[in-house]
């Protein structure tokens, strides 16, 4: 299970597995949705820990970077474009435990909350 968190990306199927494992206390990570409020309110992955829209990236990035420097963070969005950009910025600035959810919510087949 831990090996899934040691890459720089995670598929939707892997994210489902990781969320179940986190519920069971087997792994620990933070799942951050970087879509906008309206998109998030239309439906989001069950298990998202926080919404941090990319439109306000400059306002929250440093706080998240500093507060969770030693924690694995998975970024998700609609298709993986925005989450990939956020993950890349974090990685380029030295946060070695960030992953991008490949395919985003459009490829996710797990539980969605509204």
Automatic annotation (TrEMBL):
<keyword id="KW-0808">Transferase</keyword>
<dbReference type="InterPro" id="IPR050229">
    <property type="entry name" value="GlpE_sulfurtransferase"/>
</dbReference>
<dbReference type="InterPro" id="IPR036873">
    <property type="entry name" value="Rhodanese-like_dom_sf"/>
</dbReference>
<feature type="domain" description="Rhodanese">
    <location>
        <begin position="25"/>
        <end position="113"/>
    </location>
</feature>
<dbReference type="Pfam" id="PF00581">
    <property type="entry name" value="Rhodanese"/>
</dbReference>
<dbReference type="GO" id="GO:0016740">
    <property type="term" value="F:transferase activity"/>
</dbReference>
<dbReference type="InterPro" id="IPR001763">
    <property type="entry name" value="Rhodanese-like_dom"/>
</dbReference>
<protein>
    <submittedName>
        <fullName>Sulfurtransferase</fullName>
    </submittedName>
</protein>
């Amino acid at each position: 299970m831990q090996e899934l968190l040691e890459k720089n990306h995670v598929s939707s199927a892997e994210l489902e597995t990781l969320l179940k494992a986190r519920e069971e206390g087997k792994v620990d990570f933070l799942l951050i949705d970087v879509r906008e409020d309206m998109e998030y309110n239309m439906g989001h992955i069950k298990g998202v820990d926080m919404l941090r829209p990319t439109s306000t990236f400059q306002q929250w990035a440093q706080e998240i970077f500093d507060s969770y420097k030693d924690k694995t963070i998975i970024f998700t969005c609609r298709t993986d474009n925005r989450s990939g950009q956020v993950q890349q910025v974090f990685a380029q600035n030295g946060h070695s435990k960030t992953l991008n959810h490949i395919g985003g919510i459009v490829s996710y087949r797990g539980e969605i909350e509204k």
